[in-house]
Design brief:
This protein is mainly alpha-helical and 202 residues long. It has helices spanning 12-31, 47-60, 73-85, 90-107, 110-138, 144-166, 177-186; strands at 66-69, 191-195, 198-201. The chain is 63% helix and 6% strand. The longest helix is centred in the middle third of the chain and has 29 residues, at 110-138.
C-alpha cells in the first residue's frame, strides 16, 4: 500500500528535551492538594503570606500597593465587585501570561503545552469547586456566584503557576508573581485581587 505523502519524521532530540519539563508539570499537577484550599480564610496574614503578596505586587509592577486582609465573605463579595469595575491588574497579568506562553512554546510544542494545561485544569476543576463550597457552607454563604468566582480564581491561579513551570521561570529566590499568587491559594487563602492600592486577600 502506498501513500501520497511521506510520514512526518518525529523530531526525536526535541522530544527528549521536552520529557524532563513535562515530568515537572506532572509533578506540579500531582502536588495540587485540595486539603489546604480555602482553609484559612479571614485569618490574619502571616509573614510568609505578606512576603508572597509583596512578590506578586512588585512583580506585577505595583510596588506602592499593599496587601489587606478581608475578614469575611461579605467583604470578599464587595472586593470582587470593585475588581470587576476597576480591573487594574488585568492588563499587567495578561502581558505576563503572553510572555510565559511564548517562553513555554520555545521549550515545548503547542500540543504539549495544551495537554499540560488541560491536565492542570482537570486536577483543579471539580476539586476546587468542592473545596470552596465546603468552606462557604461553614460560613453559611449562599451567594453561588461568589462561590463560583472563588473556584474560578483558584483554577486560573493554578493555570498561571503551571505556565511558570512550563516557561521554566520558577526561581525560588524571587518567585514569579503567578507562582506567588498560587502559593497564597495553596496556603488556604483567596487573593481576591488588586483594587486601587489594595491587594485584597480573604
Amino acid at each position: 500500500m502506498f501513500f501520497d505523502d511521506e510520514p512526518e519524521t518525529p523530531d526525536v532530540p526535541r522530544l527528549l528535551e521536552e520529557i524532563p519539563l513535562l515530568y515537572r508539570v506532572k509533578a506540579f499537577a500531582d502536588s495540587l492538594n485540595a486539603n489546604t484550599w480555602f482553609s484559612r480564610l479571614g485569618e490574619p496574614l502571616d509573614a510568609r503570606e505578606q512576603a508572597l503578596s509583596r512578590y506578586y505586587l512588585d512583580g506585577l509592577g505595583f510596588p506602592e500597593a499593599e496587601p489587606a486582609l478581608l475578614s469575611d465573605w461579605e467583604d470578599a463579595a464587595i472586593a470582587a465587585e470593585t475588581l470587576d469595575r476597576d480591573p487594574i491588574s488585568w492588563e499587567a497579568e495578561e502581558m505576563l501570561r503572553t510572555s510565559l506562553v511564548a517562553q513555554a512554546l520555545e521549550r515545548l510544542d503547542e500540543q504539549a503545552v495544551s495537554a499540560a494545561l488541560a491536565l492542570i485544569a482537570q486536577q483543579t476543576g471539580d476539586t476546587a469547586r468542592d473545596a470552596v463550597e465546603d468552606a462557604a457552607a461553614i460560613s453559611d454563604v449562599t451567594d453561588i456566584e461568589l462561590v463560583h468566582a472563588a473556584a474560578g480564581a483558584l483554577a486560573q491561579a493554578a493555570n498561571g503557576a503551571a505556565l511558570v513551570v512550563l516557561a521554566e521561570a520558577d526561581g525560588e529566590d524571587d518567585p514569579h508573581p503567578f507562582l506567588a499568587r498560587w502559593r497564597l491559594f495553596a496556603r488556604g487563602r483567596w487573593p481576591v485581587g488588586l483594587a486601587g492600592n489594595t491587594y485584597n486577600i480573604l
